[in-house]
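EI: anyone free to look at a 298-residue chain?
SC: sure, send it
EI:
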Amino acid sequence: MRTAPTSPQNAVAVPWTSAGETVTALLKSHGAKLHGLALRMCGNAADAEDMVQDVYLQAFRKWHTFRGEANPATWLYSIAARSCKARLRRKGGTNRRVPAMSQLLPWSETTVMRAAVREDATAERREAIERVQREIARLPEHLRVPTVLRDVLEMDTRDVAAALGIAEGTVKTRIHRARLALRKAMTSKAAGVAAPAPVYEKQVCLDLLKAKLEAMDRGDGGGRIPQAEVCDRCRAVFRELDLVKDACAQMHASADGDAMPESVRARIARAIAERAAAERASNAPRRGRKPKPARTSR
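SC: here you go
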């Protein structure tokens, strides 16, 4: 019997006895979140249900490959991430280009969102958040998958890296680029006001922007950034990024509420049970007459 991994993040207690029991436990503990991920990656309920069922059946078939060195939930999400990528590629939705990083940086912009500088622009902020949520579905898969895992489902960066099989630094780079792309898409269609003139040299503002993105990674909202050094222009840009974060947070809240339909859960559990029963039957010793001993020549 394998030994459960020590101190995994978001660990889930699973019976380390058989593929059927273990994957059924993962269905109970992570089914809702995985269903929320599928809804946001696939865009419709039917495809999402098919994807979730496929992920759990793959987990059942591949349970023998899990060595017990990591959190089984992370292993499950690695299967889900590969399934997401495969489905997006089959649908031809992965070739949309994101502007170069130089085009995503706010230095050359002449306006900022009115909702970022006016406290009474509640309706405009709500529209901006809805726009971000729509734009997430338009990100190319190499940016969409880590963004949904990290910023929507709020998985730890280390777990996202493990699930995707890439370095943590690569995960952060892709998520930073996705946040800037989402901000760009959001602000391009929103009412704007003249941007305050920069107070510092370009590099200072870029360093502050990097610090803000890293603060979003930590979840501290930029509390470690010296506020005395943040000019009005950077402050407005930071508020725009906060709207991107708010959009993801609202999607996370709705993902938690996106309980997997009981009919889907029952269908997956039944499919796992049927596979497990078939596997037991194929491994069971067959009953019948004993073979006759071979004759020996005299």
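EI: The chain has twelve helices and two strands.
SC: 👍
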